[in-house]
Amino acid sequence: MSDQPVLHVKGRVLVGPQDVRDELWVVGGRVSYDRPAGARDVRTVQGWALPGLVDAHCHVGLDAHGPVDADTAEKQALTDRDAGTLLIRDAGSPSDTRWTDDRADLPKIIRAGRHIARTRRYIRNYAWEIEPDDLVAYVAQEARRGDGWVKLVGDWIDRGLGDLSPCWPREAVEAAIAEAHRLGARVTAHCFAEDSLRDLVEAGIDCVEHATGLTEDLLPLFAERGVAIVPTLVNTATFPQLAAGGDAKFPRWSAHMRRLHERRYDTVRSAYDAGIPVFVGTDAGGSLPHGLVAAEVAELVAAGIPPIEALAATSWSARAWLGRPGLEEGAPADLVVYDGDPRADVGVLAAPRRVVLNGEIVE
Ligand SMILES: [Zn+2]
Predict the structure, then answer these.
(1) How many Å lie between the centroid of ligand 1 and the Cα of residue 154?
(2) pTM for this predicted structure
(3) How far is the CA of 286 from the centre of ligand 1 (A)?
(4) 25 has which bridge partners?
(5) Cα–ligand 1 centroid distance for 8 (angstroms)
(6) Domains recognised in the chain with CATH numbers
(7) Among 6, 21, 154, 250, which is disulfide-ready with 39 (CB 3.0 to 4.6 Å)?
């Protein structure tokens, strides 16, 4: 023990929103609150420490055109890591990124397998594109491939209709969600529109991505069932550009996207006020770059979520929701150290002083 290098984190350790300690030790890659006896090789880091940030909607191994090679996926994960994101819920990837699990220097990834979409109803090269009769079988397959999550595309533009519309009949999602739960996986769905949500929530879905169409009438149902949302506001900020691209061919869709964009902050704030769990997700990896976690936290604050709750949504509560430890005694030492108190100003998240992953300082 005495010859092992030890890391000493001093200042303010934010174990929880109210649980603040003066110091933390890292021994053998794990968190300890007991000073190790006789430690000689001690390195000290000072500042405000948070558990490694969570990006609950991120895609590793994917870019705007589809799957990418391992070198590109590695760069994506390193960019997230250097921004302080040490736990990713991958919200769908056509690449097999399982190899990252053996890399102690890369963020931990909780996978949802590959997106499951209706035929020609999603971005090309991303999803399994199937019909409702095959939904249960594909959900079972992705539940087995993933790390406890399955990702559906709940709505998308229907080109015949010229607007967003639900992708799946009610009976299909009921059977699919039941199958995922039977296999121990939670289910989430990409939903922009209003009218895909009721069926999914009543069918027992666990989370909704984007949720720009979450209207007042559905708030009590989401809250009562504890269905979380991951608003990805840095992504929905791009709706006006998407809308502009659709004006000529799909004016109804474009107008719909603009309405969803205009009320996006109200939507998130109303969900939060109703008691719906809201988590930080950047949607990096499709058209957005990696490393935007601080920007998304700032967006949640802009939407009216109290800073301490926006912080919890990427740290304490997000980790609990995903079933991963924070800075408890014995947990893997995944933490980020900042110059100032992130509870007072979430802006400090944009510039981590030190990132520590599995007890190692990222240089
Ligand atoms: Zn996404």
Answers:
(1) 12
(2) 0.97
(3) 7
(4) 8, 32
(5) 37
(6) 5-51+326-361 (2.30.40.10), 53-322 (3.20.20.140)
(7) 6
